[in-house]
């Protein structure tokens, strides 16, 4: 299978846009163009895209996947000039915005046997110029390895290690110091299908942040246990209890939650405390679906939770989400 195509987009606004954001169009009008192609076969895939924005800045990305028996190899290259602006575009990179970045990614997935899968990837990147947050060019690397072991159809173990190193800055004695921040993350997870209706999962995650001896290293840890249970064919319940402890927001551990239906968010858990939720989903005659979620967050050694307009006094916070979906 082979395809090739091109897209031209003419933008014309009533007033000129002068935003410095790398995701925003700059100016009043202009022509954006891109050409792209894709090739797919049973054991090989390749795709590329070359683009020009309204100010004649260029961007390019290309990727491929090879399948060799039980091994999959992937490669991805991207290069977008510092002034490139694509208000509707995204990329697979250090940031989602196609601007001021060049990098190369390679990954390997090995199906060792029916019970064991090993995965790893390496990504190296840098910016062409200084960034909005730093007065110098940024650079970084990311190394990831994961093992999935299936003891049997009901019992799965996951182990993951990840290392990140990228340019950052901190203020020391009123001076901004730039350095390469290191982050080591270790995750272990156990999934157990108790029966056809009930699933249990436990996860432990720990991280270490290093600052090139400019300040003390930080550590963070998180442990949670969650469950899913189908009470009836149209009624599911789920819940989770999480304990977290980190030195600061810098060593926060992010937790993803995907309920109620269609609602997903990642929370940065930092400080010391617990986060718990319980929820349900109920469907009626394939027409109406009711979902709800009740959450509790409690932190130690704080007088308030949140910041800005979301800040509340006290060390605990409760929220109730109710949602009704109607299909016509």
Report on this structure.
A 16-stranded antiparallel beta sheet has the order 1-2-3-4-5-6-7-8-9-10-11-12-13-16-17-20, with no helix packed on it. The protein starts with a strand and ends with a strand. A hairpin with a 7-residue loop joins strand 14 (253-257) and strand 15 (265-269). 0% of the residues lie in helices and 71% in strands. It is built from no helices and 20 strands. It is mostly beta strands. It is globular, with a radius of gyration of 24 Å.
Summarize the structure.
The chain is globular and about 55 Å long.
Quick one: overall form? globular
Strands ordered across the widest β-sheet: 1-2-3-4-5-6-7-8-9-10-11-12-13-16-17-20
Compute the average pLDDT.
94
- Beta fraction: over 45%
Distance between the termini: 38 Å
Return residue spans where pLDDT drops below 50 for at least 5 consecutive residues: none
Structural class: mainly beta
How many helices does DSSP assign?
0
SSE pattern = EEEEEEEEEEEEEEEEEEEE
Main sheet?
A: 16 strands, antiparallel
The amount of helix comes to under 10%
Observed structural traits:
two-stranded antiparallel ribbon, 328 residues, mainly beta, 71% strand, 16-stranded antiparallel β-sheet
Chain-wise SSE layout:
Layout: E1 2-17, E2 27-40, E3 44-52, E4 58-68, E5 71-80, E6 101-113, E7 116-130, E8 137-152, E9 155-172, E10 175-195, E11 198-210, E12 218-232, E13 235-246, E14 253-257, E15 265-269, E16 272-284, E17 288-299, E18 304-305, E19 312-313, E20 316-326
